[in-house]
Amino acid sequence: MHTVVMTKGVPDFREGQVSFDEDGHLERGKTPTVMNPNDKHALRAAFQTKVRNGGHVSLMSMGPPGYEEVLQEGMRDVYADDLYLLSDREMGAADTWATAMTVATGLQNLDEQPDLVFAGFKTADGETGHTGPQTCWCLDWPMITHVLSLDIDEDAGTVRAKRLVDGDISEIETVEAPMPCFIVADPEFEPTYRKASHRLKHKDLREETQQRAEEYEEHLTVWDHEDLNLDPDYIGLDGSPTIVSGVDPIPKAPSEREATMIEADEREALEPVLDELTPYAAGD
């Protein structure tokens, strides 16, 4: 089994300061970046496949050189056997379509065709949820979205999954698809390890990947557009049909907030505070 997980770096909104250029494009080099939280659900799904079925898990991203740290984060916090970064200036400022074309080419450039490609539900910045399905469309593979759980039948070459119907938590269906296949993990996805052998293997693999992440450069492959034989006219900004009409800057939270200090023995001072908070405690 060879599984690949697509990931993306997103602004670390905890920092409260995101930088845009004059054309409305996010300046990722000037913005603190972390691994997209929804992609970690996808990576956990791929890790579950590794634990249960064996094989190899690759983590792939497209972005600036700083995304090496995003890939390292995924390897350290969840799991990865190796890392792939698609990166050069020609790929910059891409919309989801140009990104999908680039990532699909990266997947085709691997030595071994993946059995499964996992993608997150959507990113924390654009929130379109387009890149995974568009990459799948480029490869003409089947796709299962909103996946809550999955099982692999290697002999039959199929994946069976439980998924939300139209994203509705109240309606769940079971579907089956042939591999290779795209899986979009829902944020509700929860890995399960019922066998003791699986739980022990999970523990051992987690220790291995944390050690590997300390020297992640040895497991990293970087490809530019020439390595992938991509025409610059069809990738990056030039290959992006989307027009950014405007953005709303994210305000930075104040570093200091007003606070009233009350000592525990100041009963009279506590009474108005309790009067104010009691309705909230009651759910009003």
TrEMBL record:
Entry-linked Gene3D superfamilies: HUPs (3.40.50.620)
Record's keyword annotation contains Coiled coil: yes
Pfam families: ETF
Record-annotated Electron transfer flavoprotein alpha/beta-subunit N-terminal domain positions: 23-209
Annotated coiled-coil segments of the chain: 199-226
Record's keyword terms, sorted: Coiled coil
Keyword Mitochondrion attached: no
InterPro entries, A to Z: ETF_a/b_N, ETF_b, Rossmann-like_a/b/a_fold
Any GO molecular function: electron transfer activity
Protein name (Swiss-Prot/TrEMBL): Electron transfer flavoprotein subunit beta
Lineage: Archaea, Methanobacteriati, Methanobacteriota, Stenosarchaea group, Halobacteria
